[in-house]
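Researcher: For the record, we're logging two predictions in this thread. I'll number them. Prediction 1 follows.
Model: Prediction 1, sequence and structure:
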Amino acid sequence: MTSSPLIDSHCHIVFPNFEDDLEEVAARWRAVGVKSLLHACVEPSEIPAIKALADRFPELRYSVGVHPLDTKHWRGIETIDVLRKAALQDSRVVAIGELGLDLFKDSNLEEQLAVLRPQLDLAFELDLPVIVHCRDAATPMISLLQELKELGRLVKGVMHCWGGDVHEMEKFLSFGFYISFSGTVTFPKATKIHECALKVPEDRFLIETDCPFLAPVPKRGKRNEPSYVEAVASKVADIRGESFAFVAERSTSNARLLFGLP
C-alpha cells in the first residue's frame, strides 16, 4: 500500500505526548507514503511551536485559529490580529481553524458563535479555507453558513472528523465544503459515518488522523499518529468498494486542491 501518496489533512503533533519520539513518528509517516500533513491549531499560544515544527518538517503546513472548546483564549480583536499576522507572515499557514461549534462537551452556544463568526470573516478576508469542528451542532452551523452564503461571504472549507448523518453532510456539501474522515470511520458501530463515507462524492472527501486522538482500529485506545492515516484510507476504500490506490490518490488531490498542499 505504501506506493500511493497520502496526506494527513488534520493532525496535532505539537502535544507533549510526541516530545520523546517525534523523529521516529516522522520516519513512520514517511515510510507509509504520507507526503504532507496539515497541523491544526486550537488556540493562539500554540502558533510559535507549530511554526517550529514546520521549520523542522518541510512537509508540514498549518492552520491558525481558536477551537470552540477553547473560547477562554479569545480576546476579541486582539486575537483576530494575532491570527491575521500569523497567516500573513508565513505562507505555510493554509487555513483558519480549527474553529466551529461543540455542543456535545459544552452548551455556551452564543459564546462559541461570538468566537466563530470573526474567524469566518477573517478567512473570507484572507481568502483561506476553514477547518470546521462541528459536534452536536449541525443545525446552528448550517444556519450560520446559510446566512454567510446569502451575504456573499461564504468561505470554502472542510467538515473535520465528520460524525453527522448523510442529510447534514449533503447540506455542508451544498455549501461547497469537503468532508473529512478520521479513525472513527474504522469503528464498527460508526454506521452514520460509514454511510457518509459511502455516499460522499469522490471529489469532496479528505482523510485525516486527528492525532493523537481517535486512533483507528486496530490501534484504538493508543496514541494516534500520522502514519495511521493509511488505516483510514484503507477503511474508506473498503466501504466504497474502491482500491486503496484510488482513495489515496483522490483524497490527496482533494486536500491539495482545498489547502494548496505540496
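Researcher: Logged. Prediction 2.
Model: Prediction 2, sequence and structure:
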Amino acid sequence: MLLLFVISYASALPSNFTTKEIKFTSEGVTLAGTIFTPNKAQAAVVIIHGSGQEKRMTDFAIILANNGIAVLTYDKRGVGESAGVYAGPEVGTNNVDFSNLNLLSLDASAAVNTLSKSLSNNKISIGLIGGSQAGWIIPLAAEKNKKVKFITIFSGALITVKEQLRFQFYTNGDKNFWDTHSEEEARKHVFNDPDRYEFIDTNPKDILAKLSIPGFWIYGSKDIQVPANLSIEYLDTLKSKGKHFEYKLFPNLGHNTAFSDNEEPMNDAINWIKNIDKSKNHKQKN
C-alpha cells in the first residue's frame, strides 16, 4: 500500500532551536532520532511516519521547531540508524496488518516518553503529528500513552485499513478520478469490493471513540488514497458524541496535504497546536 507523503519542503527560516541526537528503546530494539528544542517551546510533538521506509523527518521538524514546537523525530524501526525489522511491500512483507501498526504505535509511545523526559517544562502539552498511515497509528499510540494530550493528522483515514485499500485499488492512481466519479460510486466500492489481501484489520473509529483528547484532521477533496468526505462524516459522528475533534477540508488538494505548494494546511496545524491549551481552557470556562 502506498500511503506516502513526499517531503520536499525545506525551511529557510533562521534557527531558533537546538538539536540533540538521541537513542531510545522500544519493544527490544534501539531507535535513533533527533530532538529539536525551540528557545521558547509552547508545545511538543512526536512525528509519526507514513507507510514507507522513512528516516527522521528533519525538514518537518525544522518547520515545527521554528514555530515554537519541540519535536522528536526518529528513524522508523529497521530504517536508517534504527534497529529492528522494517515491514513493508518493498521487502515483501505486510505493513498494514494490525500487528505491525500496533508495533509502530508502541514505538511512538516510547518516543513520547523520551520526549517527555527531555522537556525542562513539564507543563508543556505533548502530542502526536503525522500523515497518511499515521492516521491509524496515532490513535493506537494515544490510547496507550496518557502523556499524549492531542493529535494532529494529515489525510488520515477514518475507515478501516481494508476499506482504504478497496478505495485505493478503485481509484488506481488516477489523479483525475474525482472529475469522472461520484461520491456514491466511490462509497459503493469502499463497502462492497472483495478484499485482495487477508490480514487483521484496524478500525480507527473504535479507537478514537475511547479517546478524550482533542484532535485535528486536515484533508484534501481530491485525495485518491483516502476518501476525505467519508472520513469527515465519521468525524462528525464522533463529534456529535462529545469528542473534541476538528477538521479542515481543502477543495483543491490531494493526499499530500502537509507538504503541498499550499502552506495553509501546515500553518493551520501549527496554529491549532499552539492554541490547544487556550481552546481547552475556553471550553472549560464555558
